[in-house]
């Protein structure tokens, strides 16, 4: 075997040894910063540059650890399991947050992760157990996330009374029915401890990202506050 052939084979073998076992990851995957534990998937919401909210949270008890880091290892069609995280290192502790329901948010690596999927929840209030925890509701710009208007207390009360009572529907089915088409509004929920998360609302169909369809009273409240942005 001549020198050039040996060199070629060595190059091929070296290249193959660098490929991930099983062919995964199967491309450059931009995962959302997420973690799953106790059948609930959470996401970390990076604060908007315009937000000046200061977190006032206290770490609670450890409720688990990251068992598998998906980034640079999992395939694009991988389904998250309990103990999985997209970017958190394996062994990272996951904590509860004092005075905050664990089904709403957890703490890991000094970052807050807010619920993004909870198949056991039947209503918005079960999905987002935030009764008596909300400080303010804001309308945000869909362009850069700036706060455009803050609901007054009366509108906040109506919004929460109506919204938390809504039943949840299958998100995929709502999407198939085109319930998430048309113009949308970004609603930011700010809790008393500084935790914030965004909920998208589609005006034409009164549909929320969480999988709920709003009442007339709720829609009227949102539209009233939206109409006052530029006044």
Automatic annotation (TrEMBL):
Name this protein carries in UniProt: Uncharacterized protein
Native source organism of the sequence: Fictibacillus phosphorivorans
Upper lineage: Bacteria, Bacillati, Bacillota, Bacilli, Bacillales
């Amino acid at each position: 075997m001549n020198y050039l052939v040996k060199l070629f084979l060595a190059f091929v073998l070296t290249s193959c040894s660098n490929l991930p076992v099983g062919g995964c990851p199967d491309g450059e995957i931009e995962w959302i910063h997420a973690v799953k534990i106790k059948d609930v998937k959470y996401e970390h919401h990076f604060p908007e540059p315009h937000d000046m909210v200061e977190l006032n949270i206290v770490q609670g008890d450890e409720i688990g650890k990251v068992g598998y880091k998906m980034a640079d290892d999992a395939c694009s069609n991988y389904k998250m399991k309990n103990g999985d995280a997209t970017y958190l290192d394996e062994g990272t502790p996951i904590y509860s947050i004092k005075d905050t329901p664990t089904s709403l948010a957890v703490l890991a690596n000094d970052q807050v992760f807010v619920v993004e999927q909870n198949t056991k929840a039947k209503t918005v209030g079960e999905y987002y157990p935030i009764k008596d925890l909300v400080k303010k509701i804001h309308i945000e710009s869909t362009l850069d996330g700036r706060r455009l208007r803050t609901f007054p207390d009366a509108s906040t009360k109506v919004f929460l009374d109506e919204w938390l009572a809504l039943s949840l529907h299958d998100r995929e089915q709502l999407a198939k029915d085109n319930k998430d088409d048309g113009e949308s509004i970004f609603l930011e929920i700010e809790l008393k401890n500084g935790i914030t998360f965004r909920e998208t609302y589609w005006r034409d169909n009164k549909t929320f990202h969480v999988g709920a369809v709003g009442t007339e009273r709720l829609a009227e409240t949102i539209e009233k506050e939206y109409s006052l942005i530029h006044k």
